[in-house]
């Protein structure tokens, strides 16, 4: 088939498939090309997020949380169960079913919106044509007025700990262990390392996380990181900071690790090793030599503030470009680019992108950290409120953590909200809305919050900015 489209999207992750649907909604004749093959050997739309990222990790986090609660937390409610067991095949099978439901759902959305899906690897050629290479090696070329590059990212591999996908694994491998590893090593205490370390730790693995940096979760607000570190330690996650992996050797059925910290070199033996040291933009085979599209020093596609590459009609979005590697960031860029192409006013506010870590307790934030405000010399006020004083959190037996709010000292405008505690993945939305509307702590303080709910912690933290929280000393 040779055809001319208004828009071709390369990559059907949350950036690309959303861009394709929005473009089609706007009346543009749209194609979307994706190369991802699912566990059943068929095309699986949805990219990293739906296949081996956000959705499967949350499925396993939820199942493992149920098991952990049953074995550790239900006794206080008067609920006990003898010989609680986890059947790993069912646990993984449930996750696979959810993945299939959602990847299949993208196919249906494409059909409903008349997006033409191609299965294969897309390569941008000069002049906005795209060559598609199918699995069997056959090729076809299609062209469009606009091409959106949404090729996403892949895990970073350490040269001295190469993935063999059995003993040394990436995120995809750690979502598919056939049994609970007795000893699990995790390299990198970032979002992925903490989430997947938690999953297997809750099922009984002895988890050691090695993190090269001296500070825990330095991307988050320091108070949040401190509370989270304490809770993770209570759960039995051994997090070693300032510990840099230097060697990993598969010996029989074990992996022998060498890491270095301030006291010198140490050895650690584990049954499985998850390397979660970050992800890099994926552009292998994406660009013919003469397209004019540029990559930066980290291999990301260079774009301007409108996600335009500087080459006429060529745009790029999602993990393949600058900015946080988050599904919702890519999706919003996808919508904005489709709207810019259609002559509308697209918009992505990078100052209010929420971050969530789905551990227990959950961690969520949006806006500036206290350190960022200090470093920038911006005067601020702080309000905090602990979940220990929230009736609903106590009733749930999940009264851990706090909400911390940072507002401008003079204007009271909300600058950052940092949460650690129950359900904060949902509570953060209120902070995002307030910041998007350029609201103040006072605005939040005046809003009626239902009682008893976890959201009262947001209300009380807003009151606490002006030292008038009701249910704690100020
Ligand atoms: P991707 O999702 O990587 O999709 C890119 C797609 O393009 C892939 O299907 C790829 O096969 C395809 N492709 C690449 N090159 C070509 C080509 N040349 N031709 C055809 N197809 C091509 N983010 C969150 O916001 N929340 C979370 O809870 C979260 N959890 C995560 C958990 C894990 C374990 C991991 C690994 C990531 C998680 N992320 C999370 C990050 C999130 O998955 C990514 O930010 C998101 O998937 C990026 O979307 P994308 O569309 O840019 O790229
Ligand atoms: P993230 O980028 O959030 O996925 O986090 C990855 C983490 O891995 C970062 O905090 C890095 O400091 C850490 N890291 C990278 N290389 C190593 C290494 N060799 N040993 C231990 N930790 C590492």
From TrEMBL:
Cofactor binding summary note: Binds 1 FAD per subunit.
A single GO molecular function term of this UniProt record: dihydrolipoyl dehydrogenase (NADH) activity
Residues binding NAD(+), per UniProt: 188-195, 211, 278
Top-tier EC class: oxidoreductase
Active site annotation, chain numbering: 451
EC number: 1.8.1.4
SUPFAM superfamilies per UniProt: FAD/NAD(P)-binding domain, FAD/NAD-linked reductases, dimerisation (C-terminal) domain
Listed cofactors: FAD
Record's miscellaneous remark: The active site is a redox-active disulfide bond.
Family designation: Belongs to the class-I pyridine nucleotide-disulfide oxidoreductase family.
Protein name as catalogued: Dihydrolipoyl dehydrogenase
Organism taxonomic ancestry: Bacteria, Pseudomonadati, Pseudomonadota, Gammaproteobacteria, Lysobacterales
């Amino acid at each position: 088939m040779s055809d001319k489209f208004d828009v071709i999207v390369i990559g059907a992750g949350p950036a690309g498939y959303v861009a394709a649907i929005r473009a089609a909604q706007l009346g543009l004749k749209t194609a979307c090309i994706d190369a991802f093959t699912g566990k059943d050997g068929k095309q699986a739309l949805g990219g990293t997020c739906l296949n081996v990222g956000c959705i499967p990790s949350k499925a396993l986090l939820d199942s493992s949380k149920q098991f952990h609660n049953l074995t550790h937390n239900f006794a206080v409610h008067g609920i006990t169960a003898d010989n609680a067991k986890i059947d790993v095949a069912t646990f993984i099978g449930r996750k696979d079913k959810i993945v299939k439901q959602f990847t299949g759902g993208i196919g249906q959305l494409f059909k409903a919106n008349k997006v033409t899906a191609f299965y294969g690897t897309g390569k941008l050629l000069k002049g906005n044509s795209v060559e598609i290479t199918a699995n069997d090696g056959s090729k076809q070329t299609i062209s469009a007025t606009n091409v959106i590059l949404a090729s996403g990212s892949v895990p970073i591999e350490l040269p001295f700990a190469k993935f063999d996908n059995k003993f040394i694994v990436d995120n995809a491998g750690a979502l598919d262990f056939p049994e609970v590893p007795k000893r699990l090593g995790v390299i990198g205490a970032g979002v992925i390392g903490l989430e997947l370390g938690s999953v297997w730790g809750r099922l009984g693995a002895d988890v050691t996380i090695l993190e090269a940096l001296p500070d825990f979760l330095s991307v988050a607000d320091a108070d949040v990181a401190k509370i989270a570190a304490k809770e993770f330690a209570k759960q039995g996650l051994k997090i070693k900071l300032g510990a840099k992996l230097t060697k990993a050797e598969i010996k029989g059925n074990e992996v022998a690790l060498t890491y270095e910290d301030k006291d010198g070199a140490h050895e650690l033996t584990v049954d499985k090793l998850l390397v979660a040291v970050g992800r890099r933009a994926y552009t292998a085979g994406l660009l013919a030599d003469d397209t004019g599209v540029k990559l930066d020093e980290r291999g990301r596609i260079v774009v301007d503030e409108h996600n335009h590459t500087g080459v006429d009609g060529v745009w790029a979005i999602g993990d393949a470009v600058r900015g946080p590697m988050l599904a919702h960031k890519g999706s919003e860029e996808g919508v904005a680019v489709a709207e810019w192409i259609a002559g509308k006013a697209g918009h992505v506010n990078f100052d209010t992108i929420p971050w969530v870590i789905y551990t227990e307790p959950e961690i969520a934030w949006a806006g500036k950290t206290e350190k960022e405000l200090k470093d920038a010399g911006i005067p601020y006020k702080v309000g905090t409120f602990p979940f220990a004083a929230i009736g609903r959190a106590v009733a749930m037996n999940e009264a851990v953590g706090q909400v911390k709010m940072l507002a401008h000292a003079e204007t009271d405008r909300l600058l950052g909200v940092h949460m650690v505690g129950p359900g904060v993945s949902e509570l953060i939305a209120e902070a995002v809305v307030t910041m998007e509307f350029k609201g103040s702590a006072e605005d939040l303080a005046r809003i009626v919050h239902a009682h008893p709910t976890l959201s009262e912690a947001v209300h009380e933290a807003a009151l606490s900015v002006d030292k008038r929280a009701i249910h704690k000393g100020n």
